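Saturday, quiet lab. Running sequence design on the structure tokens for the scaffold JK sent over.
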């Protein structure tokens, strides 16, 4: 793992900056010591690698569904194994599913989860699964919201990596787990989802500004989750 968290970022970051204008924003917001549960939206299989570059000083073991070991192409599966991924059986709910990740947190390390549970086909942030709630309650670790943007242009669903587009990742402010738990499950999950989408929209706006509107490509992801929920609420009340 030492080679992965030192040599690989040293090689990948300059290349990603050259080809994709890659930017990491506010990575200093990640606590330097102690357990951290990072949560991030999920646009493609590039997301764990981008998160790894953003949190390289800490290192972490991402979580992924067990079936990915066989569903992915050999090269991508090999890369994920180099990350020392924690593979979980998503068909078996409960604390035992996240045992390894909880161990990471209890031993003062960083764990990352993509709460949507699957890659977003349209770039929007979809509903969070209950696994992240279980991890917050059991782990009692600071929660670090993160977001990636531009990945659906670089690696569209079902397609290979392209040499076009722009990539950015951002870290939000760490959140107190006790305050999240006090909200209750449903309110907590929706709050986290909104925070992650707010971060994503910041990146989307930044990429549009610095590429003069060329990237990201227009689509459903242009509408923020807050606007979507507001529109739905107005339609229901009307």
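Result came back. Writing it out in full:
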């Amino acid at each position: 793992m030492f080679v992965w968290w030192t040599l690989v970022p040293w090689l990948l970051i300059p290349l990603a900056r050259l080809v994709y204008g890659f930017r990491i924003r506010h990575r200093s917001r990640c606590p330097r010591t102690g357990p951290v549960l990072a949560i991030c939206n999920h646009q493609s299989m590039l997301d764990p690698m981008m998160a790894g570059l953003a949190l390289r000083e800490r290192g972490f073991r991402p979580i992924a569904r067990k079936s990915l070991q066989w569903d992915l192409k050999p090269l991508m599966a090999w890369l994920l194994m180099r990350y020392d991924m924690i593979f979980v059986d998503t068909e078996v709910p409960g604390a035992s599913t996240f045992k390894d990740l909880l161990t990471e947190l209890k031993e003062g390390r960083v764990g990352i989860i993509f709460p949507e549970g699957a890659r977003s086909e349209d770039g929007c942030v979809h509903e969070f699964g209950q696994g992240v709630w279980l991890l917050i309650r059991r782990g009692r670790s600071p929660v670090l919201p993160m977001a990636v943007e531009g990945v659906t242009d670089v690696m569209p669903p079902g397609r290979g990596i392209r040499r076009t587009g722009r990539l950015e990742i951002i870290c939000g402010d760490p959140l107190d787990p006790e305050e999240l738990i006090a909200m209750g499950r449903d309110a907590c999950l929706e709050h986290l989802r909104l925070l992650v989408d707010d971060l994503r929209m910041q990146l989307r706006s930044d990429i549009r500004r610095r590429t003069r509107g060329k990237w990201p490509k227009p689509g459903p992801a242009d509408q923020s989750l807050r606007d979507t929920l507001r529109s739905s609420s107005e339609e229901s009340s009307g």
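Notes for JK: The mean pLDDT is 88. Residues 185-210 form the longest helix (26 residues). Ask whether to fix the surface positions before the next round.
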